[in-house]
Specification:
The structure is a single chain. Helix 1 runs antiparallel to helix 3 and helix 1 packs parallel to helix 5. This protein has one domain. The chain is 74% helix and 0% strand. It is mainly alpha-helical and 141 residues long.
Length: 141
């Protein structure tokens, strides 16, 4: 038997991989258009591309990086909830809300990239993460 909270975790992992594919599909052609030759690059970092590629080509990459940041806390707290037997019902619903908000955040950042809109969605998703964390603390302490 499994905990319902595992489902939104898997969906967010899958979404992250979708954004990785989108980032590669956008960035590689932009690099080619900018005359960047992958065969000759040595020791660069992702932020170096911000200086040579159009911002729109970087937005999906930036979002992929964001999906490697705060969502790691989401995966950890969901795992605690699942292992403690508290990953069903309201906690699963809150987890789905977090995933939905992170997908909306991705879509905003990958398209219009309006910071105000992204920020509102980020704050809302952060509040769901706080709620999950409080519930996890109640479950294990």
């Amino acid at each position: 038997m499994h905990s319902d909270i595992l489902r939104p975790m898997v969906v967010l992992i899958a979404w992250t991989l979708v954004m990785l594919g989108g980032a590669l599909a956008t960035r590689l052609p932009a690099m080619k258009a900018a005359g960047v030759d992958l065969r000759t690059l040595v020791g660069t970092k992702g932020s170096d591309a911000d200086r040579s590629l159009p911002p729109q080509a970087q937005w999906k990459v930036h979002n992929y990086n964001h999906l490697m940041e705060q969502p790691t806390l989401f995966y950890a707290v969901c795992t605690v909830l699942a292992l403690s037997g508290s990953g069903d019902g309201p906690n699963a619903w809150i987890a789905w809300a977090y995933v939905g908000l992170r997908i909306v955040h991705s879509l905003i950042q990958a398209t219009s990239n309006r910071v105000r809109d992204r920020f509102v969605v980020f704050v809302l998703s952060s509040l769901t993460l706080v709620a999950l964390t409080l519930h996890a603390a109640l479950a294990v302490f």
